[in-house]
């Protein structure tokens, strides 16, 4: 028996192909996902920091650790801050297979966000 409709809806990445008997059977593994939840580093985005934080070798050691997902005001250092804040997180991701694309999905970004990947 093939996957149920519930499986297909909840596991949207799962790919299926019709078999000769008309049953849907899973084919190759779906797109991989890499979670970025966890500890990020954050700082209040003042004018000087906005100009310098993208420079090579920038040191964010003085930035506060912030748990993502979450609201920055739950971090004591930002409890009275209305934003904007800068967030940073280093991660490595393998390149997509030839002819494929990678997507960065950021759930929970408030009404505006600028994203830089390097």
Structure description:
It is globular and about 45 Å long. Strands 4-3-5 form a three-stranded antiparallel beta sheet, with no helix packed on it. The chain has a two-stranded antiparallel ribbon with strand order 1-2. Among the domains are: 1-29, no CATH class; 38-88, no CATH class. It has helices spanning 5-10, 47-52, and strands spanning 16-18, 24-26, 38-44, 64-68, 85-88. The protein is an alpha+beta fold. The N and C termini lie far apart (45 Å).
Spell out the blueprint of helices and strands.
Blueprint: H1 5-10, E1 16-18, E2 24-26, E3 38-44, H2 47-52, E4 64-68, E5 85-88
Antiparallel strand pairs: 1-2, 3-4, 3-5
C-alpha Rg, in Å? 20 Å
Unreliable stretches covering 5 or more consecutive residues: 1-20
Distance between the termini: 45 Å
Spatial shape: globular
Number of helices: 2
Strand order of the largest sheet: 4-3-5
* Total beta strands: 5
Mean pLDDT across all residues, rounded? Answer: 78
Structural class: alpha+beta
Helical content band = 10-25%
